[in-house]
Amino acid sequence: MPAHRPALISITLAFVIVATACSDKTPAQPSCTYTVTGTTLSFSPQGGLGSLTLNTGTGCAWTATADSAWVTFPSGSVGSGPSALSFGVSANTATNARTATLTIAGQAIAVSQQGRTPCDYTISPSAIDVGAAGGTTAVDVAAGAGCEWTATPDALWITIASGASGTGSGRVTLTVASNGTADQRAGGVIIASRTVSVRQAPPSTPPPPVACEYSVSPVDTTLHWHFTTLTIDIATAAGCSWTASPSETWLSIDRTSGSGPGAITASFSILTEDATRRAAVLIRWPTPTAGQNSWITQEGCRYGLDGAASFPASGGTRMITVVTQPLSSSCAIGCPWTATANASWIRVASSMPRAGDDAFSYQVDANTGPPRVGTITVAGRTHTVTQAGG
To answer: I want to staple 359 with a disulfide (CB 3.0 to 4.6 A). Which of 73, 130, 321, 349 is the partner?
Structure first.
């Protein structure tokens, strides 16, 4: 047994040596290379978004940086493997162009941006005239986008109501206080280093009071039954006051006071009565003469018709003539009228209403009872109908 032990040991050591040699082998690391291309690398003053394409192997890490704060990476600045990167360029408010360098996976990319156009301001108007009472006025500013400006008054009586500062085009609203001095005064407001002058007039001397004189037309008018309005003119100077009122309830007017020249419309209803009515529009003013009345006379209508008629119990038909005449013979329009019966057994057969000299017919029904009496009324006149019993 002892003669075989050394051979066993040698075999075991050889196995260990072979196994150890195999475990020392490690896989080879990938070699990363990077290329960067861009499509938008030059920008206008307004800025915008640009895009880059990064080509590299899978798992190859990269970092993106910019040497200027006006360039950012909104979609992230670190990653691995091939990628599409976007970057943002903010607006350039300066007039000078600028450049920045983007470093992506060690690759330098140049980005440029134009400067804005130098600011030019147009102020309108360049001068403002304001009355003594003061008030609000405005100045318009025309400027390019991004052009800043301020507005500053140089007098205490001028204040900025709105638009004390702005960018680009805008409007400055000024409030001018009333002028409490006896003289004209001048000030201004400075907008974008330009001065807009403001001139304010002194308070004006009030004119002497006007010596008011008045006249009214017409002062006396006669109207026919069918007239329903009349215009009364008042002649006087501007600022001269007056009042008006009707003397009767059947008369109404469209205004009760005024100042300066004016007109009053008097209104009333038609007058078909056998009568004449008279009322005045009382116009008054603050002078020693006190005022003037404008009198209105309205004439009515006269009517005539047969006073009565008798019928037998069997009834019948009768024609009645109505005679009309305006109170004033110069009125050529016939007076209106309507015939109305007060009993159902008396029936007016002619159409109504009618006007002027005309006639109408009516029918009396047969009577089987005792004698009866009814009436037909025309414009306040009565026609009596008597019928015998049956």
So the answer is: 321
pLDDT in tens, 260-314: 999 999 999 999 888 899 999 999 998 767 899 999 999 999 899 988 999 999 9
pLDDT digits (tens, 9 = 90+) for 169-216: 999 999 999 998 889 999 999 999 999 999 999 988 776 777 889 999
Domain count for the chain, please give it.
4
Do 245 and 295 fall into the same domain? Answer: yes
Give the pTM. 0.43
Structural domain for 243, as ranges = 215-299
Is 291 part of a structural domain of the chain? yes
Chain-centroid distance of CA 201 in Å reads 33
| Inter-residue contact 252 to 267 (CB < 8 Å) | yes
Within-domain flag for 356: yes
For residue 113, the cross-strand partners are 43, 98
DSSP string, 298-309: EE-EEEEE--EE
CATH number of the domain at 62, please.
2.60.40.10
Given a contact cutoff of 8 angstroms between Cβ atoms, the answer to whether 339 and 360 are in contact is yes
**Shared-domain flag, residues 322 and 245:** no
Are residues 274 and 305 in contact, defined by beta-carbon separation less than 8 angstroms? no
Output DSSP code: residue 116: P
Kindly calculate the radius of gyration of the chain based on its CA atoms and give it in whole angstroms.
55
